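From the shared-data thread, chain only:
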Amino acid sequence: TLRTASGIDEIELFDPPDAYVGPIDVAEGGPVWCSDLSAFRALSGCDIRGVVGMTVLKDYVVRIDFARSRVEMMSSDKETHPARGMAVPLGYAESRVPYVTAWVDGREVRMRIDTGDNTCGRLSEAQYERALRRREATVRDSTVVDLSGIRRGESVRIGELRLGHYIYRELPFSKGLDSALGIAFLTRHRVTFDFPNRKMYLVKLREPARPARAYISGLVFRRSAGRLLVQRVLHGGPAKEAGIRPGDVVLKIDDTDASHLEPWRAARLLMSDHEKEVTLTLERSGRPTTFTFKLRPGL
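Structure, as tokens:
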């Protein structure tokens, strides 16, 4: 079984492929499972074809430097490393999923580390309802991407999150089956996971790292019968406001012929590091129509 933010899924395991992450043989982690990663490709604009799990990482020190877009994997030792930052104890839940203990609005909360969640994180239903009862709590719609796919939800800004001696205020958290810290939280730091010694080290960045292509359209594509189609139009995105609908056939993105584009490449053409106007030529009911709109910061 696989536990995600939206539920528990039954999965089938397979023998590992001949694959490596640098010098690390993925087969050392044992059986693998298959998942549809099209949601990750669609919203990241990257050709993501796999996820490295804890059965591979458990014996290594993994440093993620979001500011430099760099990941390092190192051997572990028994030395102390104050230069790595503030040390936070790591625990392990079922299936060796790592977690930390934080304080949310004055209450102790066990929070999983979920690098597959694109948000700041999520709260269990009880924790979420408690946050809603906080005076002046603000609720907003949100788009969550994890291994279960793309889903709509809502998020609430919590008053205060304490992790070690770091304090964070007014961070948005969505509602889930459990509580977790997601990738948007981790990008505020240089993070070092020392999995064998059960420690996570954090160094706060002066400015949270932001994706190089943070302005997006809110469109998710798929291919069918040799054509590129709009599969989904995210609520609150500029494409939705421009009138684009699921089922529209994409003919051109600006001056680029879209007839042979993979969905993730189409998504990448509709990403930018600044506000940018784009024009899509779509076919609807057999007739070509153009839509022009400005990309907007990530939803």
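The chain has a mean pLDDT of 85.
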